[in-house]
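Marked as duplicate of an earlier ticket. Keeping the data here for the record.
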Amino acid sequence: MDETKRYKILITGTESSGKTTLAGQLANHYSGSHVPEYARQYVAEKPAYEEKDLIKILKSQLELEEEIFSNAHRTCFCDTGPEVIRVWSQYKFGKSRHEIDESVLNMRYDLILLLKPDLKWEYDVLRENPENRDELHEMLKETLCWGNHNYIEIGGIGEGRLKLAISQVELLFSRNI
């Protein structure tokens, strides 16, 4: 692996697909940085959000991502990106604003790991969609394809899921020797 190159890796998926856990595990495994999902903080403070709030969430997520990545030693694991906000907007409000679409088209990650919704859904006051994770997963796949972004699907539970993700990160590193 090129020790001077910094890598930005996106962990994406539906609610309760293990994004936060896996991003944290990978950051810990590689002594990397972890960009948390800003939307959780925002919605916790303002649960009655509107469509226009998604632009604020997007901008804050991207600013947080850039700040953490610019200070990252080598590898930065991002818990969610513009693709989730686009799907969220389309599903909740029936459309996606131009700024969100542009952000998806301009995404630059070295690796995108799309987590399958094969983990048991866990209740959380900020979660809204326990019944339609497969539909939202398909929408995420469509959004990534629409934005011309390659991705690797990761499934399974526990240590097996982590090992699959690590194998993909190692493959990325091996291609950049």
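See parent ticket for discussion. Residues 7-175 form a domain with the Rossmann fold fold (CATH 3.40.50.300).
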